[in-house]
Amino acid sequence: MAMKTNSADGRTRSSIQIFVVVGLCCFFYILGAWQRSGFGKGDGIAMEITKGGADCNIVPNLNFETHHAGEAGSVIESESKLKVFEPCRPRFTDHTPCQEQKRAMTFPRENMIYRERHCPPEHGKLHCLIPAPKGYVTPFPWPKSRDYVPFANAPYKSLTVEKAIQNWIQYEGNVFRFPGGGTQFPQGADKYIDQLASVIPIHNGTVRTALDTGCGVASWGAYLLSRNVIAMSFAPRDSHEAQVQFALERGVPAVIGVLGTIKLPYPSRAFDMAHCSRCLIPWGANDGIYLMEVDRVLRPGGYWVLSGPPINWKNSYKAWQRPKEELQEEQRKIEETAKLLCWEKKYEKGEIAIWRKRLNADSCRGRQDDSRATFCKSVEADDIWYEKMEACITPYPVVSSPDEVAGGELKAFPERLYSVPPRISSGSVPGVSVETYQEDNSKWKKHVKAYKKINKLIDSGRYRNIMDMNAGLGSFAAALESPKLWVMNVVPTIAEKNTLGVIYERGLIGIYHDWCEAFSTYPRTYDLIHAHGILSLYKDKCNVEDILLEMDRILRPEGAVIFRDEVDVLIKVKKIVAGMRWDTKMVDHEDGPLVPEKILVVVKQYWVAGGNSTSTQ
């Protein structure tokens, strides 16, 4: 219903709206100027903003007043009492609810079951705010963060001792330094990647998405970024304390994960390249089930790199301190499974071997008659959430000619970003046509343009690690695409449409997740979270407080959240987060105050463990 005002009231209201909008612009300007950095002072980004002055010009139709039923003023007084969430005890500083060590040790060690996700029951969840450690500072801006991490943010020195000769990590004063080395590339990731690039087309955009299994501190993924290749890295939370935490502090995409008994949380045909550098995964075990899972997520024509044992076992078995018979058998099983998968071995030199997956099933006619070749019967290869891995081969999509790429050929990146993904052009995503895909891109370009006017820091490099909690077709991430940042595109397991495969076909990365549970990451690993319709999606599915507390856990101090949802939902959110040490501002939709969808902008306050207020949990 349209609001009625006389002209004087209208002018007054417009003046207030413009004043408040300008206020939020300056609010983010001041936030940038005071942002804590790796040395506890205003960082270089903020200083540049300060030098330039605050440009607070914002289009008049973006304002902070809401004009619909369900506004804050209509909340019943008896329901408006503020619930304050207390800080958790300091021992929970690095709490990862679904990979909690004590709970993990109650599960079998066989096949790494104990390192898989084991989330707490409802009564075991913490209902308090995870504190940052004393001395916590904002990570260095990229690309400096690739090489340096403030010690206070992840104060664990064990890797500096365990991996000292392998050049993983060094402790220098109040920072960790990452020289770019690894167990298989002590001379640096760049030289190692150059060797891979002599076989794999890394340089021209053909290879864009990569999977790094058992990634360590993710130096391989960190150095691929300069070549416009983005890697999804994972490693378990194990004796190598904080390796994934270090990766994310460096500004490199990573999650806590393991190849155990459950399928990886990625769609089929997602990655152009998969990689294992001495990742300790027993590739030859369990009838080749781990290689079969890699095959599922590897695109036709994609590459698999194995670096380290058992490759070149004849010359290295003594250095590895393993019986040569054991290594020989391990390599035999790997070669046998690769042949069954119809992978072509392209390269073996030193301790590096590279295989390539065939383009389609027509290239593998021989295996149809192989009694050992069991094909997966699952109708949906992307139905993976908590599903057990199977020792079977994921079938290729059908092709009409021997040279056709099964599932569709992709453009080189960056053209891939806005080309129509094959899953859409083929009609594989019900309800999503080429036209709706293009409309979605236009819509999110418009939304992101509005976000950048609200928060001037989005383009500054201040926000490196960004998450989209309900990513849809990945158009938010596409509109943001920049070497200054990366986006973790999350497709909820209860989403109406399974679109994660589309996101990967655009040259972006992402993961499946159920937001009724904790995400597979450490606390304080994201600078900016985008939550479009996520709370409406999970209405009546689980407790909204649990979702908001999880967002607080993974958000860095002074990080930001952008909620986009119906006004009634955001009013409730605003009330809850008022007790979570979050500062909030409500903004109208960019098309004006009569649109019921609103934007709630949030900044998490800076605070650390050891204050006077502590919860009993």
UniProtKB/TrEMBL annotation:
<dbReference type="InterPro" id="IPR004159">
    <property type="entry name" value="Put_SAM_MeTrfase"/>
</dbReference>
<dbReference type="GO" id="GO:0008168">
    <property type="term" value="F:methyltransferase activity"/>
</dbReference>
<keyword id="KW-0489">Methyltransferase</keyword>
<dbReference type="GO" id="GO:0005737">
    <property type="term" value="C:cytoplasm"/>
</dbReference>
<feature type="transmembrane region" description="Helical">
    <location>
        <begin position="16"/>
        <end position="34"/>
    </location>
</feature>
<dbReference type="InterPro" id="IPR029063">
    <property type="entry name" value="SAM-dependent_MTases_sf"/>
</dbReference>
<keyword id="KW-0808">Transferase</keyword>
<keyword id="KW-0325">Glycoprotein</keyword>
<protein>
    <recommendedName>
        <fullName>Methyltransferase</fullName>
        <ecNumber>2.1.1.-</ecNumber>
    </recommendedName>
</protein>
<comment type="similarity">
    <text>Belongs to the methyltransferase superfamily.</text>
</comment>
<keyword id="KW-0812">Transmembrane</keyword>
<dbReference type="GO" id="GO:0032259">
    <property type="term" value="P:methylation"/>
</dbReference>
<keyword id="KW-0735">Signal-anchor</keyword>
<keyword id="KW-0333">Golgi apparatus</keyword>
<keyword id="KW-0472">Membrane</keyword>
<dbReference type="GO" id="GO:0000139">
    <property type="term" value="C:Golgi membrane"/>
</dbReference>
<keyword id="KW-1133">Transmembrane helix</keyword>
<dbReference type="Pfam" id="PF03141">
    <property type="entry name" value="Methyltransf_29"/>
</dbReference>
